[in-house]
Every structure is written in C-alpha cells, then in structure tokens.
Automatic annotation (TrEMBL):
Alphabetical list of InterPro entries matching this protein: NACHT_NTPase, P-loop_NTPase
Provenance organism: Rotaria socialis
Matching SUPFAM superfamilies: P-loop containing nucleoside triphosphate hydrolases (SSF52540)
The NACHT domain, residue ranges: 30-121
Name recorded for this polypeptide: NACHT domain-containing protein
Lineage: Eukaryota, Metazoa, Spiralia, Gnathifera, Rotifera
Signal sequence bounds: none
Sequence intervals crossing the membrane: none
PROSITE patterns in UniProt: NACHT
Length: 492
C-alpha cells in the first residue's frame, strides 16, 4: 500500500492553475481559502503569486497585490492603510495623499490581499471581532492560507496544497544541485536513494522536508552507504533532529572553533547544552501562549527558568534557528527587545516537543504529563505531539515512553473517538514501526475497529476521514492487520 499512497492522493485530486484560482468564486468579492500541512508550501505560494503579479503574469485587473505575514501583527487595532504601511514602510510615514489613494483602491475592489498564516495569528487578534482581518474578510478580495485545523471562518472556495508530485521532486533536485561546484550526478544519486527508500520518498513530497533532505545530503548526514537502504529509517522527527544537529555543528565550527568530526548525537547535544536549553524553553513558552511570535517578555520568562542571562550569549541568535523581524545578523549584540520568530513554525514545534521530552525524562515528569493530557486533542499541538513520540523513540528509554503513551491513551478521552484515532496514527507514525512500543497492540486493535466501523456505516464523511488518515501513514501501511482491513475500505 505504501508505494502508491501519493498516487492515490493525486489521483483523487483535481489540479488547478494559479491563474484560475478565482474561477469558482461566484460572489463579486473574490475570496479563497488555501490550506495545507506544515511545510507544504503555503508561504512559497503567496510569494510566488505576488511575484508573478508584479511581473504582469497574474491577475492584471488588480492594481495592487498586498502580501501580509499574519504572524507579524502585534496590535489589536489596524486600519487597512495601517496594515499595509506597517508591512512595507515601517521606517517612514506615508503621505496623506498616498493613504487616500490606497483607501480608494481598496474601496473600488482593485486590491488583492494575500494573507499568509492564519494559524500563526496571536490569539488576542484572532478573537477580536473588529480586527483588521475581519474587515478584509468582509470587504476585500483576498486569499487566506492556513493549516487545515485552524480555520474558524467560512469559505465557499477552498483549495488544498498537497505537496510535490513525483515529477516536481526530480525537477527540484535538478535545480538544487545545478551549482558549478556540485557534481551533476548528485541529484540523480539522491533521487535514486529517495525512490529506493519508500518512507523517505513519502516525506519528500512535502517541500520543506525535501529542502531539509537536500541540506543533509550535501552535509553527508544521509547517504547511500552500505546497508543504508535497508537499515536507515528517516521519520519526520529524525529529519528535524538531523537538521538541528547539522546547524549546531556549523555553529560549533564558526563560533566556538570546535572540531566536530564524528560527533555523536549525545556529544553535540552536550556541547550545545545551553543553546538547546534556550531554544526548547523559548519554543515551549511561545507555544503555550499559542504564539508564533517570540514576544520580548518571553525572553524574560526564559531567563528566570534557565538561570542565566541571554545577553551573555549573543551567538544564540546567529545559529540560524531564530530570526528578528529586522532580519539582520545580530553579531555581538542581542536585541531581545524586538520580536523574534523561528525560521519555520515546525522548528518551533520541534523544540517545544524537545522541552516536553526533557520533562518526561527528568525525575519530575508531572508537568509534561499534564501538558499532554490537557492538550492532546488540540489540533494546534498535533505536530508537537508527533515530535514528542519521535524523540522518545530516538532516546528509546522505557519509562518516558510509557509516561507518554499512558497520557495519550488514558482518560480524559474524546467522546466520539475520531480525533483519538487521528492522534494515535500521527504519533505511531514517528515510532519507526517498533513492535515493542508501549501498548502498541491496543492501538492497532483500536485502528482496526474504526476501519470496520467506517466500512459498515452509511456516512461517507467518516469513511473519507479514515481513508485520509491511513493514506498519510507509512508505518501503518505495512501493518498486516491494517492492510487486510484497508483493502475492504478501498473496495467501498
């Protein structure tokens, strides 16, 4: 089954050209919701669309296209002009005549807004009824991007970005390895490696993951060494873990002038102990507040927790994991009075997961256990919990793994059961299919039960939900008992 998962996804989808994205909008005001998983390319879509418009290749009937990163909004009250001015002219004041001109364009429907990252909006703005987002939603032509779970707004026209096709992967690799100093055969070698390793081939369809894979391939963190194709497994968690290790090794070389040859995972984590502790604490504090923006007050809270001053370690901000909104290298000066953000939201989720795992592995796991119990059905923490499962698998320590799965499988439980089904699948996916995982048989039996229920129900929505969840799982695709029941799902 796993060999054709992506074929099935694409076969059941209808491709749409960007220029035709508004064709199904029947209302005079054009509004489209674009959803997609973490790292799937939503932000790239927005930048590409804005660039193509500027080049005269898209939507010429709009006199202006305004791209807004929603995670940059920090105040409750903005007008449309304020929003545009903050994003594009932060260091100068626009003239009144220009503001009036822009306002008139908005009123005449000649502006298209590209709103990127609804799921990254701070909660205080998200729940503000008279926010600028609601103004745009009610009055302006716009495209809004988000992860699927986060949307509370209603859209008649919805598009999902589902990732690279097989042909897209080959094209991306050719472009990634076309530099003069790179071997032309490298792209073909990596493509061969990906195709021979079904699990890695699956996650490579997500653009961000493929980018990370290319970086690791260049750094020889993954390669076609002897027995690698049979023994090497690369779950999403391990991909991020290797990428963090690669960034830290570069940092050790550049900042600490440390020899990094053949460092084990344990060794590099020991050498970067303070740095990793910092990122984990920052990520968790921000995630706890449902924020993708690291407010300056977060740094104050983190300093109290870790017991040392961030200003004593300015190099923390030059590793390539955190960025300031002024987007400049900080050098020897740490400006913690400015908002920061992780280069990818999924990096923030990875480090927050590492914080939870540190708690589970400590002598006082209660806080981590309570966090998991309280948030396990909150979709905003789904990727974080998957990372927790994957990191615990890497450490392979029995007691922390038991703490985690007991928190997932024991009360409180969701009443219906579908979210519990989805949670189990996403967390199992990061366990490398280990047969010794705590309460694994119980989970497999639960999944099989839901497959049988969905087949016997007349409600297609539940059956479709089960199919989509199973199609995303490569570990379960190779589980014999799942395969037998999946065939009956496909037959329907």
């Amino acid at each position: 089954m796993s060999s054709y998962i992506y074929e099935e996804i694409y076969r059941n989808s209808t491709a749409i050209d960007i220029k035709d994205i508004f064709d199904k909008c029947k209302d005079q005001r054009k509004q489209v919701l674009i959803t997609g998983r973490a790292g799937i390319g939503k932000s790239i879509f927005c930048r590409y669309a804005a660039y193509q418009w500027a080049e005269g290749q898209l939507w010429p009937h709009y006199e202006l296209v305004v791209l807004i990163k929603l995670n940059s909004l920090t105040h409750l009250k903005y007008s449309l002009v304020d929003l545009m001015e903050k994003q594009y002219f932060p260091c100068e004041n626009l003239s009144d005549s220009y503001k009036q001109y822009f306002t008139s364009l908005c009123g005449e429907g000649k502006v298209l807004w590209l709103l990127d990252g609804y799921d990254e909006l701070p909660l205080n703005i998200l729940h503000q009824p008279d926010s600028v987002l609601n103004t745009i939603y009610q009055t302006q032509h716009h495209i809004l991007t988000s992860r699927p779970y986060a949307i509370s707004l209603s859209y008649k026209t919805q598009v999902e970005i589902i990732g690279f096709t097989d042909a897209n992967i080959a094209m991306y690799l050719n472009q990634s390895f076309e530099q003069p100093n790179e071997n032309e055969s490298e792209s073909q070698n990596l493509l061969t490696y990906l195709k021979l390793n079904t699990k890695i081939w699956g996650i490579a369809h997500i653009p961000l993951h493929l980018k990370l894979i290319c970086c690791l391939w260049r750094d020889n963190k993954i390669s076609m060494v002897e027995d690698a194709l049979e023994k090497q497994s690369l779950e999403v968690t391990m991909l991020y873990d290797k990428m963090v290790q690669s960034l830290c090794q570069q940092y050790l070389t550049e900042q600490k002038h440390t020899t990094i040859c053949n460092l084990t995972r344990t060794s590099f984590r020991e050498k970067c102990k303070k740095e990793l502790e910092f990122f984990e604490n920052v990520a968790f504090h921000a995630m706890k507040d449902f924020s993708a923006i690291i407010d300056p007050k977060v740094f104050d809270e983190v300093e109290k927790t870790i017991g040392w001053f961030i200003s004593d370690y300015p190099q923390l901000f030059n590793i390539g994991i955190l960025k300031s909104f002024n987007d400049k290298r900080i050098g020897s000066h740490v400006d913690v009075k400015k908002p920061h953000y992780f280069v990818y939201l999924s990096f923030q989720e990875f480090f927050a997961a590492s914080y939870v795992v540190t708690g589970l592995r400590s002598g006082r796991p209660e806080n981590s256990i309570n966090f998991i119990k309280a948030n396990k059905y909150d979709q905003r923490f789904r990727l974080l919990l998957s990372f927790v499962s994957g990191l615990l698998t890497i450490y392979n320590e029995e007691q922390p793994i038991q703490y985690f799965w007991d928190a997932i499988l024991n009360a409180p439980l969701e009443l219906v059961g579908l979210r519990h089904f989805d949670l189990i699948i996403s967390c199992l996916e990061e366990t490398r299919g280990s047969p010794s995982i705590h309460r694994r048989k119980e989970m497999i039996d639960y999944i099989v039960m839901w497959i049988k229920i969905s087949v016997n129900m007349k409600e297609n929505t539940i059956l479709d939900y089960i199919k989509q969840a199973l199609q995303r799982s490569y570990i379960l695709a190779n589980e014999i008992s799942i395969q037998k029941n999946t065939y009956s799902v496909d037959a329907t």
